[in-house]
Amino acid sequence: MTQPFMFERPLGLRDTLPEAQRSIARLKSIFRQELQRWGYDFIKTPALEYAETIGRASAIEDSQLFKFLDAEGHPVVLRPDMTTPIARIAASSLRKQPLPLRLAYTAALYRSQRKEGGHPSEFEQAGAELIGDGTPYADVEVISLMITLLEKTGLRSIRLAVGHVGFVNAFFYDIVKDKETVKQLRNLLYNKNDVGFHEYVASLRLSNHSADRLNTFIDSRRMDNEKTLDFLKDLTSGSSIPVHSYYHHIVELIQLLKIDHLEGNIDLDITLMPHLSYYTGFVFQGFGGGLGFPVASGGRYDDLLAQFHRPCPATGFGIRLDRLMSAAGADPVEQRKKAIIYDRENAGKAMQFAAREREKGQAVVLQHADGIDDIEAFSQQFETIKRFLKSEETETE
Amino acid sequence: MMSGSVITVAMPKGRIFGDACRLLRDAGFSLPVTFETTRKLILDLDTAPFRFILAKPVDVPTYVEYGAADIGIAGKDVLLESGRDVYEMVDLGISRCHMAVAGLPGHRSKNPYLKIATKYPNIASDFYRRRGEQIDLIALNGSIELAPIVGLADAIVDIVSTGTTLRENGLVEFDRLMDISSRLIVNPVSYRLKKPVIDEIVEKMIRATEGTKVGMD
User: Fold this and answer.
1) Which terminus of chain B has a smaller tally of CB atoms within 10 A, N or C?
2) Helix A136-152, helix A18-37: angle, nearest 10
3) Same domain for B84 and B107?
4) What is the domain extent for residue B154?
């Protein structure tokens, strides 16, 4: 085996240098403040979880899990998402807490990637989960919260695509009456393969009417919200009760979003199909800025908590901090540091001065002159330099 | 990137390029006459806010997935092989061909596992995995037909359009894997941020594909 170089990191992992780390810290503090204002409590979960529970429930592909054995020989995974660990907590440690629960987090997640740049194996995510409320009001709250968080970061041209997995499943099942076929159709949606979808529908030997309903379903992506709603109404006439009730959820959600003045950001796209299979109802993805990838995603997962023996509805979202940073563009967070260079004679004076400045909130580097190798290079890093030296006491800009 | 409302289109150079240009003109894009002959890699239209980038066909899905291009024209072979996260919205019906397994007639393998040479390792391994056959893959970059002739491989997995190349090299087709044609692909985020413009292009391309000529200024 070839030896790694000293500076190498394991595949897919990367260092975050001070400038990027400052940007991340800024985003996190914006999120922390806003989430607290909405009454969400922050929690933390361990990076390692049992593969049998979280690994399986998280619905992340096996090949994407970092899986190994802990000291006792149990298979464990590095957490690939936060929704599942939070569901575990809501169903165990917080079992006695009255519902609905409002929980938030920022955490690093781990998904092994074989692909190239822009797909790191470790990334930070901020998110919120609203557990125990099955009404569309809860869906509106998390959508509204997510948009607000993105707006607060200064991200431009924010768009949210909203779909409904429950509707899609019920609608497909109504037509094809076969779970395996529904899964195939759903997979084609997930792969964004419209061409393949039409081909597959043609291969199913459905009646012209049924094939037509499936084909126009996928073409509805190209309609605006009003048209989509009208279209869904026509499409679902004569459908089963579940399809109808989901349709009414969708109408209700769009109306509520209008009341909340968010409809302008929303693109109702009933063909939206996320990769996480635990979603059961509304699903959404957030876009913005100049990035080719979604910055945020979320949705309703009403069956997940039942896996931890506390069946209850839930909805939530996560925002990818790494992607948000690229999407929002370079946003250098200015850090005005002051340097104080001192010598033995002036140590006391310099230290007191530094303490006073820090008390005022000023970032201060206190540096003994003998510890500086290259005074020129050192000085360039600072806005202001104050010298407490034997012969001089000056401040230079 | 996705600045303003300019739509960046990634075009495949080479075999598909002529077909793609004809279709774009049918869809109403007034492409300059020099379009097919220029050596420039980036071309802006004077008449409409469109920028064309000319890329190697296998790279088109990459440009589109990362959002360096909003939309692109790519062969289904390339899409299947790369597995990129893009919308495959329209079967353009151009540059039709098919993916096939081919080799020397009557060839009997002496290898414990079939040796398969190909430019499409993912497609080939997927095909044999589904069949339950274990194979040894040999990745090549071109002139795949050489491999069985010089004994590098038992068979090849490659695209076949007219079959002339196979015939002239004395090879025959064993299996037909799938039909291939060019597709209109769209970056998922561009689609959300520039929906009205992209929807219009998609509609026009659908109509052009059906052979109906429509205008676009």
Assistant:
1) C
2) 140
3) no
4) 97-178
